[in-house]
Every structure is written in C-alpha cells, then in structure tokens.
Amino acid sequence: MKKAKKSELRYNEDDERTLLEDILGFIKVFVVSAIVILLFVNFVAHPVRVDGRSMYPTLKDGEFGFTNVGGVLLNGVKRGDIVVVTMEEKGQKTHWVKRVIGMPGDTISCVNDIVFINGKVLDETQYIDPDYRQSCVDQFGYFNKVPNADNSDVQDFEEVKLGVDEYYVMGDNRPYSKDSRYVGPVKKSQLFAKNMLVLLPVSDIGVKD
C-alpha cells in the first residue's frame, strides 16, 4: 500500500492580498462611519441630557434626547424657541438648555415680577404653566426676580437693550435658572441647537419646543 502524502502548506500571494484588502475595507468603513456620525452630531442632531431643573416642567432633570442643530443653521431661531446655548464655565465649554425670550433689538425689562418686551407684557402662557408659576410665587414670593447685590433680598432684573447679534435666554423654571438675568445676553454664535426630541424616559417621549 502506498502511504498518503502529507498535506503541504503553501504560500499563496492571493491569500495575503485578500487579508490586506479586508483590513483596508474595515478601515474604510470605520472612517466613513466616524465621519457620518460627526456630521450627524455637529450639523443634524446632537445628543443632550437635561442636567438640573431650570427648564422644569417643560424638561425634567435626567431626560435624554436629541436637539436640532440643522434647524438653527437653516431656519434661525424665534422668540419662544428652546435652544442649546454654548457657554464657558471655569475655562470649559458647556451647554445650557434655555428658552429664547428676547430677540436682537429688543428691550427686556422686569417690573413687579412681570417680564416686558419693548414696553409690552410678554405672554408666556404657551410654555409656562400658570399653576406652576403661581406655586413658585406662593413658595418664594416671586417668579422672575433675581437676588440683589448682597443676596439680602430679591429685585426685578435690570433692563437690557439687545444688540443686533444678541439674544436674551431664560429657563422656564425661573427661581432655579441661571440665565441671561445673571450672565447677560448671548451671541447668535452661541446658539448651538434648538428644540428637543426627548427619548428617555419612555414615558416622556415627544418633541419639546
């Protein structure tokens, strides 16, 4: 009987070329995917987690969703829009979620805890629950006022005349919000995104604007 020949391992240049092509293909897919994700996050939608209660009850602490970056770039913003504002705190960039109250050229003032735009009372009933507002007034004695210089009392915030590139933003939950009443107007370049599609928790799914 003839002995069976042992199998031989042979070098195959095609195999090496195929492996290299697979690696290059993987790298290409990875790079393209990364670019698509970056474009999506920076020019279409940006993930945001609500931190704090400054926008309560419209947005609740811990809610997660996406904001519309493209909306700001293509359509701009209008009074009443929820916006994501790029701020700098302690040398680091951060994002605030607020609402546009004043537009370029507006004069914003507060008289007896009521907000005025160009001398007229600002109607905020579309986005601020009157019952919640009243509950804050009952608890604190005010809703729109801010602490005075020595924090010994509260007062109406100072009147501001906005420039051609300035916006006045405030949180819906005024007693708990750090906003333009404290840091002044923000520039258009700071308005990073607008509106918010809440995805989590599931019970709160919906577009907030």
From TrEMBL:
One of its GO terms (biological process) is signal peptide processing. It is a single-pass type II membrane protein. Its EC number is 3.4.21.89. The keyword Protease applies. The keyword Nucleotide-binding does not apply. One of its GO terms (molecular function) is serine-type endopeptidase activity. The chain crosses the membrane at residues 23-45. It holds the Pfam family Peptidase_S26. The active site is at residues 54, 98. It is found in: Cell membrane; Membrane. One of its GO terms (cellular component) is plasma membrane. Residues 25-198 form the Peptidase S26 domain. It catalyses: Cleavage of hydrophobic, N-terminal signal or leader sequences from secreted and periplasmic proteins. Keywords: Hydrolase, Membrane, Protease, Transmembrane, Transmembrane helix. PANTHER family: CHLOROPLAST PROCESSING PEPTIDASE (PTHR43390:SF1), SIGNAL PEPTIDASE I (PTHR43390). Belongs to the peptidase S26 family. This is Signal peptidase I. It comes from Holdemanella biformis. The lineage of its organism: Bacteria, Bacillati, Bacillota, Erysipelotrichia, Erysipelotrichales. The gene is lepB.
